[in-house]
Design a protein that fits this description.
It is built from eight helices and twelve strands. Helix 2 packs parallel to helix 3 and helix 6 crosses helix 8.
């Protein structure tokens, strides 16, 4: 199978690292591994990965801090590995900009599919059928370039945030439930709907003048969310 990208796996459990590495390599990926956060950050600086698989609970610099530092310099897709019962850590990771998560114990095959999914979305135009360029007032989105700007300044959007914004812009005035958005933007038939909530919150922080009183991404109580253009 042809190489599909470079993945950095950061986990302090040697068995987990070995199993994940073997499955990812079987899926066509080139894999770097690190047993702690400091080594992971150093490897990423030396050989930037296309996707980072990151364990949350590690001694020393934990996965959340590694994710935060990665986000300071890169929009590389991040998939978190979290344990059952670590909902607060999952939410915190998503708030820091992680794109996806898999709960331990996990299927290595599922993880490989999730990695392929986030990489595909990061490399290709948005999942929504948008025009070559979409505009809404001072907001401009270019799917082909995977670029969004506000008042001419580029927005630091993760792959998921970009796809979510592209989907909203393609369907103005339509209310979607969180389950709908999970299916249409994430491609999941099921999953933790708080993922959508966190990504909407992060997107509001980047495109709304006052995220607490959003003008564009409206909450539709009892349903989900609706995108209201600021220009008609």
């Amino acid at each position: 199978m042809a190489e599909t990208g470079r993945v950095l796996v950061v986990d302090d459990d040697e068995t987990v690292r070995d199993v994940v590495r073997r499955y990812l390599e079987a899926g066509g990926f080139t894999v770097d591994v690190a047993g702690d956060g400091v080594t992971g950050l150093r490897l990423f600086a030396q050989r930037p990965a296309d996707v980072v698989v990151l364990d949350v609970m590690m001694p020393g610099i934990n996965g959340l801090e590694v994710c935060r530092r990665l986000r300071q310099a890169s929009q590389v897709p991040v998939v978190l590995l979290t344990a059952l019962g670590e909902e607060e850590n999952r939410i915190a990771g998503l708030q820091l900009g992680a794109d996806d998560y898999v709960t331990k114990p996990f299927s290595p095959r599922e993880l490989t599919l999730r990695v392929a999914s986030v990489l595909r979305r990061a490399r290709m135009p948005g999942v929504a059928p948008v025009a070559p360029e979409s505009r809404d007032g001072n907001l401009r989105l270019q799917p082909g370039a995977r670029q969004a700007t506000l008042d001419g300044a580029e927005l630091p959007l993760t792959a998921r945030e970009f796809d979510l914004l592209a989907f909203f812009l393609a369907h103005p005035g339509v209310a979607f439930s969180r389950a709908d958005l999970l299916e249409k933007v994430w491609g999941w038939d099921f999953g933790d709907q708080s993922t959508v909530t966190v990504h909407v919150r992060r997107l509001r922080e980047k495109i709304e003048p006052n995220p607490a009183k959003p003008m564009r991404i409206a909450t539709v109580w009892g349903v989900g969310y609706r995108y209201d253009p600021v220009t008609s």
